[in-house]
Amino acid sequence: MKPSISDVMIHINETLSEEARSTLEESMRQIEGVIAPRFNPGKDHLMVIAFNPDKTSSAALLAKARSAGYTAQLIGG
């Protein structure tokens, strides 16, 4: 059976450098169930994360961003 995949968008209030965005993407990859965390060019405050909702939750992803010291909110959903 194919795993289900969901997307969540997290808005980061702070302005992140390219290095900070890369570091945050990498930290998200460490969470079991995260498939593809990414910032889209030109939308440096918005991180889109594809994940398996059977393995993790949007709340856990938001908590990870906040634990990195950022002010963050879930968008939509």
* Count of individual domains: 1
Give the helix proportion (percent range): 25-40%
**Rg from alpha-carbon coordinates:** 12 Å
Work out the number of β strands: 4
Mean pLDDT: 94
Structural class, judged by helices and strands? alpha+beta
Uncertain spans, ≥5 residues at pLDDT below 50? none
How many helix segments?
A: 2
Indicate the CATH topology. Answer: Alpha-Beta Plaits
Strand content: 35-45%
- Strand order, largest beta sheet: 2-3-1-4
Q: What would CATH call the class? A: Alpha Beta
Give the CA-CA distance, first to last residue.
25 Å
CATH-defined architecture: 2-Layer Sandwich
The biggest beta sheet, please?
A: 4 strands, antiparallel
* Assembly state of the chains shown: single chain
Q: Order of helices and strands, N to C?
A: EHEEHE
Shape: globular
Description:
The chain has 77 residues and is an alpha+beta fold. It has one domain (6-75): Alpha-Beta Plaits (2-Layer Sandwich), CATH 3.30.70.100. It has two helices and four strands; from the N terminus they run βαββαβ. Strands 2-3-1-4 form a four-stranded antiparallel sheet, with helices on one face. The protein is globular, with a radius of gyration of 12 Å. The mean pLDDT is 94.
